Amino acid sequence: MKCRTAPNGAINHNHNDKNDAKGSGFFVAKSIKMQQTNAGGMLPPNPFKHGNHNTDNAARTDHAPDDYLLNWTRENLPDAKDFWVSDADLIIRDRKNRLMIIEVKRHKGTMSHSQRTTYLILDALARQGHGTRLKLRDGRIMPFKYAGFFLLQFEKTGFNDGRAYIDGRVMSEKEIIDLFSLRKSKDEILNNRQRF
Fold this sequence. Notes:
This protein is an alpha+beta fold. Helix content is about 30%, strand content about 20%. The strands form three sheets. Strands 5, 6, 7, 8, 9 and 10 form a six-stranded mixed β-sheet that branches.
């Protein structure tokens, strides 16, 4: 049996997960709260809980992976109930090696169970490496700080035609710029609102 392709071009390798059958089948990023550590770095706490599944997300998202790789994956990788292929929407890193993972959904879409699980695995690995010095494959040793895993949802398609949400909380474009620029943590942004 060949893999099925969702309307948005995502490959579905798990035909038994009804959300994956219509969802993107690709992982990206859902958010986790960020808190300041004693060292002044940002460390996300516990992973997010399962949200509501949006089975119409594939038909309503504007995300479209590379067509060539999509077709190659469909033709050459296993088609089994226990095999998932994912891509990442945004990975941000600055010169201080602070790293952030972001999943983007339009029309307030949500992640499928398999996508969410893949991101939680990556999140757990990054959290374990936070505050350490990592030895890279090329031999370099670099300090690493993990700035979190976030779900950016647009009410419609972007900042200009509706609201934007980070982990289910409405945020302005300026607040999201501050978050993604690593100037402020999500908690700092939300706490600032409460002071005014």
